[in-house]
Amino acid sequence: MTARHAIAAAARDLADTSPTPRLDAELLMAHAMRTSREALLLARLDDPAPAAFTALVARRLVHEPIAYITGSRAFWTIDLAVGPGVLVPRADSETLIEAAIDHFGAAPPKTILDLGTGPGTLLLATLDHWRNATGLGVDASPLALDYARRNAGNLGMAARATFRLGDWAADVTGHFDLILANPPYIGTDERLPREVRDHEPGAALFAGGDGLDDYRRIVPQLRALLAPGGAAILEIGATQADAVSELLDAAGFSVALRRDLAGHARAVIAT
């Protein structure tokens, strides 16, 4: 069977599993063929389908995230290695990068702190944009930090990115021009897609009954770490703008909102 026909068959099989069955099938085929999706679509659709493709589709049929199957995820301008036990980077989080770029304009930040860095997602994306900046990523998961360090090395940023095991900003000292955070913000009773609920780490998703537990811990830590003229940018759930803004306002911050491409409030910018 050619790759073209195998992709079409897999897309039909995945229709009840994924909202993007054709894209999933193409990404899995590209991975099986050890090529890029672009190269596959441009020149290799009539190649024989590799035998490994069937097993990859079987993993997706039980809702395993594509990023875990392929071992990587594109985010902003970089590609990140990811795997089981690590939160999969999401396009919505790119809203924080856009907000940071707009905030700093022609005066880029020199020091960046990423709280809950995961595989280095936000920190490494911003360091790729601001090539003279340095940064610190903190996470409570040793596994996530292993991925973050590997990603920094793969991207040539090991000299500019430091990673530390920690409990949010506890024991972090110094001042940072930009503080980023994508904390857990899902309420414990909220429903999630199976690929998230059954595969991604709950500690990176859930934050108490209202999803706000970690904001209550992070917000009081920000003022002492934020450099004059700096900004703290936090990702939020689509219904949490008012609640998180109130926490920041009570801590003495001025707050602005940034919406994602779907029009949902996705980031709060505290100055």
Fold and architecture overview:
With 271 residues, the protein is α/β, with parallel strands linked by helices. The protein folds into two domains: 3-62; 84-270, Vaccinia Virus protein VP39 (Rossmann fold, 3-Layer(aba) Sandwich). It has helices spanning 3-13, 21-32, 37-44, 52-61, 66-70, 94-104, 121-129, 142-154, 194-197, 213-225, 241-250, and strands at 72-75, 78-81, 111-115, 134-139, 161-165, 176-181, 226-235, 255-259, 265-270. The protein has a seven-stranded mixed sheet with strand order 5-4-3-6-7-9-8, sandwiched between helices. Strand 4 (134-139), helix 8 (142-154) and strand 5 (161-165) form a beta-alpha-beta unit. It is globular, with a radius of gyration of 20 Å. The protein starts with a helix and ends with a strand. The model has no long low-confidence stretch (mean pLDDT 97).
Explain briefly what this protein structure is:
This protein is an alpha/beta fold.
Overall residue-averaged pLDDT value: 97
Task: Report the biggest beta sheet as strand number plus sense, adding barrel if it closes.
Answer: 7 strands, mixed
Side by side, the strands of the main sheet go 5-4-3-6-7-9-8
Categorize the overall geometry: globular
N- to C-terminal distance:
58 Å
Number of domains: 2
Which architecture name of the largest domain does CATH use? 3-Layer(aba) Sandwich
Tell me the name of the CATH class of the largest domain: Alpha Beta
Portion in beta strands: 15-25%
Number of strands: 9
Q: Which residues sit in consecutive blocks of at least 5 with pLDDT less than 50?
A: none
Q: CATH H level of the largest domain: which superfamily?
A: Vaccinia Virus protein VP39
Helical content stands at 25-40%
Order of helices and strands: HHHHHEEHEHEHEEHHEHEE
How many individual helices?
A: 11
Supply the helix-strand structural class: alpha/beta
Question: Radius of gyration in whole Å, from Cα?
Answer: 20 Å
CATH domain fold name of the largest domain: Rossmann fold
